[in-house]
Backbone:
């Protein structure tokens, strides 16, 4: 399945939020397999982001990247120090990367398998958010 790199983390997060649910075996297998596939691709994307950060970061006298503390989502984190110009260049190049397509071996499930969740009492019924999150892997009839 072709997917833009920017969709990888979104789809990974959506599937990861379904971990505690009980679904038919075919559906559970597809979700867990897709999580593995998306995690590997997410790691590749993160490695490329890290390389870009290092390329655009300010360097100290030894040629090492300068790190500064910043706040992301209320958490104090270390991040690469960049000038505003370099930050803009980094963001543009990273955005170009995220617009690239990749071909992933995504496992799909038929819509009827998802619908079985409502018919069999032991299965968790996916919420609308779950259905939206896994829409990329549902085969419509």
Residues:
């Amino acid at each position: 399945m072709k997917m833009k790199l920017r969709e990888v983390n979104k789809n990974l997060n959506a599937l990861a939020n379904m971990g505690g649910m009980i679904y038919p075996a075919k559906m559970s297998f597809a979700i867990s397999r897709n999580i593995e596939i998306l995690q590997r691709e997410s790691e590749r994307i993160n490695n490329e982001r890290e390389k870009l950060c290092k390329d655009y970061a300010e360097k100290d006298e030894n040629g090492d990247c300068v790190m500064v503390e910043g706040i992301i989502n209320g958490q104090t984190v270390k991040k690469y120090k960049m000038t505003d110009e370099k930050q803009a260049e980094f963001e543009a190049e990273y955005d170009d990367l995220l617009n690239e397509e990749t071909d992933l071996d995504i496992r799909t499930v038929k819509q009827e398998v998802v619908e079985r969740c409502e018919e069999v009492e032991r299965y968790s019924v996916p919420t609308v958010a779950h259905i939206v999150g896994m829409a990329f892997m549902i085969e419509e009839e």
Q: What stands out?
A: The chain has one domain: 2-57+84-139. Strands lie at 2-4, 67-72, 75-80, 101-103, 109-110, 138-139.
